[in-house]
Amino acid sequence: MANYPQEGALRGGHIPGASNIPWAKAANEDGTFKSAAELQALYAGEGVRPEQEVIAYCQTHHRSAHTCLMLQCMGFKRVRGYAGSWSDWGNNPDLPVET
Question: Residues 16, 97: contact at Cβ < 8 Å?
């Protein structure tokens, strides 16, 4: 088995143009979702708008599935999850990476 760095892939970084909004920022300490106003402010503050296409990813698409559900509940119509997530992208040397 390969010895991967903490990022879970051979390369660290992110997909070019991606916004980094960790899924836990959408939750309160008790695990419930933050209010709609707080969530709208969180995503709008990162330039993410309901009319945009949003593709959520993390390391393995487990946590980003939470983001997909939350955004759909907020009325985002064009939300998808990248099932391969970073473990797929970061291990493909032919794909660009921003650090």
Answer: yes
Q: Give the Å distances, CA to CA, from 32 to 12, 41, 52, 85.
A: 30, 17, 25, 24
Radius of gyration of the chain (CA): 14
The reported pTM is: 0.82
CA–CA separation, 29 vs 32, rounded Å?
7
Residues 39/67, Cβ–Cβ less than 8 Å: no
Helix (H, G, I), strand (E, B) or coil at 86: helix
Catalytic sites, residue numbers: 58
pLDDT at site 78: 97
